[in-house]
Amino acid sequence: MSMSIYRAIRASFLAVEKREGIGGRVRRAIGVPKLRNLSPFVLLDQFIIPPGAGFPEHPHRGQETITYILQGSLDHEDFTGNAGTIKAGDLQFMTAGRGIMHAEIPRPTADGSATIGLQLWVDLPRQLKNVEPRYRDLRASEIPTVVVDDGKVAVKVISGKSYGVDSVKDLAYTPVWILDVEIKPGGTFTQVIPDTWNAFTYTLDGTTNFVSSEEVLPIEQYHTVVFETTGRSVSARVPPDAKEGSCFILIEGAPLDQEIVQYGPFVVNSLNEAKQAVTDFQLCQNGFERAQGWESDVGKKFRK
Q1: Average pLDDT in the 79-96 region?
Q2: Domain ranges of the chain
Q3: 3-253 CATH fold
Q4: pTM for the whole structure
């Protein structure tokens, strides 16, 4: 492959840790002043929830949330009657649509360790903003893994396609590809990106050398890397003499031709719609009728 076909890096920055929820912490990779959004993506958090912490009852409207558990397990419950647990390697896809209220609480671990994962917010197309909420799980056992470069690269194909391997399910309304990539020393990973799609990575472990159009840029742990839209592919490698490998999430998506207005947990297309979302939630109307008096079982420990 010629170096000229690789997408250049538009920006890279450290995802700084902050407090969120009750006792939780997040590293926000999208949804910060340096990157408010990257259509169709509105927010990406790496969350760290220690024992006794969590995200009790809260609303959403206008987006889909995709939650990927890296360590521990998370109990989920919403006001439509859906409830369940996702464990390490599992994902939960939730469509907020016209309105939903839910709680996300980690299940206690035997060793008292924190639950760690990623949550991605994906914007819904304008014509789907008012769909009824829905909720799906994707278990670790359902996710295909492709191993290439003589075993030095492993890719979990959560959604989309990589090295000729397709994901099992299409679980989001907006076209999104999510790849969990692990590179051992000496390995090289290359992924073709659909034309016009936006693409970014979030680095979980180690140092990854991303191949830009003119240079190779080493990116350390907990960094967001945003790529330009020109170029056919993204490529990354770990030098043969590196002491450790690296792991990152590559996320790609078709941009939406619409304004993104985020007001807290609501993702809409105008300021007036944001004000309406707040009113609807406060008055339990227009999609939030079931929020009136609703309390989750998983969040009851926060109501003592």
Answers
A1: 94
A2: 3-253
A3: Jelly Rolls (2.60.120)
A4: 0.95
